[in-house]
Specification:
alpha+beta
Length: 63
C-alpha cells in the first residue's frame, strides 16, 4: 500500500511539472471565445488572439 501511495504522489508531481513547462497561463488568464469574430479575448488584460484553438500563452505585458 505505501508503494502505491508513493507512485501516486510521484505521478501528481510529474503532472504538475509537465503542465508548468507546457503553458505560461496564470490564474489571471481567462480566455473567452468570441465565435462570431473567430477570436479569443482575455477577460483580465483584454488581449485578443485569433484562431479556433484556445491560447496556451499569457499575453499580459506583451501588448
Amino acid at each position: 500500500m505505501p508503494i502505491l501511495l508513493l507512485l501516486l504522489l510521484t505521478g501528481v508531481f510529474a503532472y504538475f511539472i509537465y503542465r508548468r513547462k507546457t503553458t505560461t497561463l496564470t490564474r489571471d488568464c481567462r480566455w473567452r471565445q468570441e465565435r462570431s469574430q473567430n477570436q479569443w479575448r482575455c477577460t483580465s488584460c483584454d488581449a485578443v488572439k485569433s484562431g479556433a484553438t484556445e491560447p496556451r500563452d499569457c499575453l499580459r505585458g506583451r501588448l
